[in-house]
């Protein structure tokens, strides 16, 4: 469980949500108040994303920590220079593991539902999105017990919703509720996923799950072994020569028995493994028609 920041806008989590229109939502969640900031983009390149982030940071200030996944544009040299210029620490979460950035992932599912509903009802999805964000910011969050806007700005914001009696957001209460809620979520997650301690250790040779769609005749794990070089909690880093990959421990499988260790230390060949074509169906034996006599 990640610790709650000491104050608003100290840590920000960022991710993208792709829309059927070809546009993208740049989703920013402030980790202390859960205050969301959403930008609509037509591209996810560094050159397109950074000006939007620069504008957000001009409005609210530069956070100390920006949390993202390790995909583009956040793994680019351009973004690294942007982080160095503004002075924030870029923290990368475990790739291909949505729970590592859970608050943002859950919020994006809601945003997509808003867009789908608006489209089905033939309404302006952008206008419906703005309305949802306004109401969400003014509604008490189930974890903190106070609205994101109240926690963020120490005052409520005016909306068209009926205004509940405003309550001050006290840091001690927010922390207690946050700790209690995260503990409940952890227990529920472990119960449903049947969590057990990973048997993977540094130095083990492992296989990693393939990304994306797996064909009917393709093994779920890449058959080229890697060697575990670092473990941080449930995050594991494995390598094979110059190739390195970071995933959650559930994406790896330990090799057991005698294996070709030499193959695990050779330089990584990024040539895709050949896919096994679907075997042809057995052709029926055609018998010539009987001649009439």
From TrEMBL:
GO BP, sorted A to Z: DNA integration
Region (Disordered): 163-192, 266-293
PROSITE patterns referenced in this protein's UniProt entry, alphabetically: INTEGRASE (PS50994)
One Pfam family from the record: rve
Compositionally skewed regions (Basic and acidic residues) per UniProt: 170-181
GO molecular function, one term: nucleic acid binding
Domain called Integrase catalytic: residue spans: 4-156
Source taxon at top rank: Eukaryota
InterPro entries: Integrase_cat-core, Retrovirus_Pol_polyprotein, RNaseH-like_sf, RNaseH_sf
SUPFAM superfamilies reported in the protein's UniProt record: Ribonuclease H-like (SSF53098)
Name of the protein in question: Integrase catalytic domain-containing protein
Species for this entry: Strongylocentrotus purpuratus (Purple sea urchin)
Lineage, opening ranks: Eukaryota, Metazoa, Echinodermata, Eleutherozoa, Echinozoa
């Amino acid at each position: 469980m990640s610790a709650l920041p000491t104050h608003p806008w100290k840590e920000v989590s960022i991710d993208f949500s792709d829309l059927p229109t070809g546009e993208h939502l740049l989703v920013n969640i402030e980790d202390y108040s859960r205050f969301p900031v959403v930008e609509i983009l037509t591209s996810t390149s560094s050159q397109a994303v950074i000006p939007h982030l620069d504008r957000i940071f001009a409005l609210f200030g530069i956070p100390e920590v920006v949390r993202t996944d390790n995909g583009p544009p956040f793994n680019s040299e351009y973004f690294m220079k942007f982080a160095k210029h503004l002075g924030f620490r870029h923290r990368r979460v475990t790739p291909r593991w949505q729970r590592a950035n859970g608050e943002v992932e859950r919020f994006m599912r809601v945003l997509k539902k808003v867009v789908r509903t608006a489209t089905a009802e033939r309404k302006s999805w952008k206008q419906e999105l703005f309305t949802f964000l306004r109401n969400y910011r003014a509604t008490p969050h189930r974890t903190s017990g106070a609205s994101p806007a109240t926690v963020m700005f120490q005052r409520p914001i005016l909306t068209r919703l009926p205004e509940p009696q405003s309550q001050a957001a006290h840091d001690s209460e927010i922390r207690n509720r946050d700790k209690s809620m995260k503990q409940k979520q952890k227990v529920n997650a472990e119960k449903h996923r049947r969590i057990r301690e990973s048997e993977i250790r540094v130095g083990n040779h492992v296989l990693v799950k393939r990304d994306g769609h797996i064909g009917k005749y393709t093994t779920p794990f890449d058959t080229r072994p890697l060697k575990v070089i670092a473990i941080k909690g449930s995050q594991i880093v494995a390598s094979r020569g110059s190739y390195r990959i970071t995933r959650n421990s559930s994406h790896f499988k330990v090799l057991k028995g005698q294996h070709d260790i030499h193959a695990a230390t050779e330089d990584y060949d990024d040539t895709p493994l050949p896919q096994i074509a679907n075997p042809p169906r057995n052709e029926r034996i055609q018998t010539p028609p009987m001649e009439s006599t």
